[in-house]
Amino acid sequence: MPHTPHLSPHAPPRLLVSDHVAGRISLLDLPDGTERAELNHRHLSEHAGFLALPDGLTACVDDRAGELLVLDPYGPDAGRPLVRRRIPVAVPAEHLAADPGGRRLAVTTGLGRNEEAWTGLLTAVDLDAPDGAVAVRVRGRTGEPGVTVLGGPSPLVVLRHREPGELLVHRHPELMRSAPSCPPAAPARRIALPDGDGHGDAHDPLTGRVFAAAGSGVHRARRKGDDLAAEDPLSWSADGRSGGRGYYLRLDPVRRMLWSCVRGGSGDPGHWPDWSNDAWWHHLDTGATGRLELGPGLVFRLAVTSRHIAYARVHPDGDELILLSAPPAAGSRPEVGARLPLPAMAGAPQPGGTPWDGVQRRAVAASPGGGLVAVSRGGHGEVHVFDADRAAPLTTLTVPTPLDDGGHLALVTPGDGADADPVGR
Fold first, then answer.
1. Is the separation of the CB atoms in 47 and 201 below 8 Å?
2. Helix, strand, coil proportions of the chain in percent (round to 5)?
3. What is the pLDDT of residue 87?
4. In the beta sheet, which residues pair with residue 109?
């Protein structure tokens, strides 16, 4: 794939705002909100999210068209279209990941709007395939698998399954040589995981480790030559706090840490206002691990800035953006730096009802190369932008669609190194 021309370090941060319900993606300058480009009739796979690629590119999946889109957020400045590549992939997309070089990708399929898993299709992609075989679909297990892609001379595609729990290791070059008509693909290696509750994946390119969040802890496996070997899991318990499990997992490339949100409380979704939430972190190089209380309610995804970690918390008593100060020094321990109120959402989840279905939600985004944080206000077509370094609101941006379900956001900064986390968010 042709490389993007050098990006000026003085180019402004940009925000991709996806309304996956209305079918629109906006590209906005920050902080003034000037729209640089728009894509209509594009329905982002919100679960697979946006994936940062090298050279300032971003990938996502259009779940209705069945296409992987490679976006060039700074292309419109130079007369290039926002959409760099369109590649057919199997949908509904569940997870999206790339190898550290950004050449080889994988897209898994999940439930979509179905009650049961009905497709086990996996799409392997090679953006620089010399013979023109850019994307190949194969059939594996049905479910909602997570995915990571390990680089090297023989790249590996690692699927994380829930029921039964296991990691399935495929060799990417073998997938790309598969026959037409979605043939079954047998894994080269199976590694057992606990059944039923896997949720969250991360990949550390520097060590070749893969991480999978489950109720029993963060399970680990490490690249060994052309294979993968299991290692001892990491515990959710830390700093005298125990119980719960992480429902999200991501790599922080600035501080080389793993982050999650550990949720505790009743399994009944109607009791969501009483759920406990802790930020969980682990230093990849030192092994230090810790937990911090965030407060009750619904906390899910998080975002990484150059000096903070941002969580959005939804609760009937008031929503807030929580900023954790996260010094880069390996011996430093994160702490809650600020709690900033968020305007209420009409249609917000209510006690006694599910916090996910038929209600408004929030998306949060940041760049590891800057200090801005963006939080959506589902149903209102608004995105609130904060300066994390000043712990202060900066502006409110308005888009022409309501952002039902909270939409999805990606905040990009030239040269921010976001592609060091090669899993879609």
1. no
2. 5, 45, 50
3. 97
4. 93
